[in-house]
Structure formats: C-alpha cells, structure tokens
Amino acid sequence: MSAIYPYHHIIEKNEVEPDGYVSCLTYLLWTRSAAQEHSAKQGWTPEKYIEIGAAWILETSADVAVRNGAEALASGKRAYELTKQSGRYDLLDTLAAAYAENGRFKKAIEWQLHNRLELYKSRKSYRETSSE
Q1: How much is the pTM?
Q2: Domain ranges within the chain, ordered by starting residue
C-alpha cells in the first residue's frame, strides 16, 4: 500500500468551532475517512480495514493503555484469514507483530518469514503497491 494518498475534503461550516478552529474529534474523523477511502482504493473491505487496523494499533501503540496483546493476536489471526484470501502476503506483518507483542518471538519470526515465503511459493515477486 502506498504511504502517500491524496485525500480531498471541503470543510463544512458545521465542522468549524465558534473559535474558528476544527475540533480534535472532527480532525480524527477526517483522518479515519481518509484511511478508509485509501483502503477501499486498495480493494480492502470495511471488515478487512477494521481487522488489520485494529490489530496493528493494539500491538504497536506506544501507549501502554492502548496495547492489548491478546486482542491484537485475535484480530491479527482474523486479519490473516482475510489477507490469505486476497493473496496480499505483505500484510502478514500484522500477525507477526501480534505474536511479538505477546512475547512469542519464535512465532513472530516464523510469520515474518512466512510473509514473503508464501508470495514466492506462488511464484510472484514482491511489489510495493501504489495508490493509483
């Protein structure tokens, strides 16, 4: 998936606070909308977006109050099932990171290796995806 995605949004009057600024919540909603639009352009279903995104946040957040290794692993496994069906083996980083967050580093290494191995077994070269 491309790291840069152009997202266009016209600010509505009702999105601006009386002090002339946009609230943090509104900004977060714009960010989520941009991420979902980007994911849709990559062919992700809303379910896949939620599973992969949720797992990644739960396992990699710098905020210990947000991290939840057990939930990350459950989401990572569900994301893997969605990923496996699409052939997007580059997304297996999510499951590898979930295992690492749970202290299961041997499993994390196996899944990280599995990441590219499955791609190569299917006789495909790794390619970065573009937003186009």
Answers
A1: 0.53
A2: 44-121
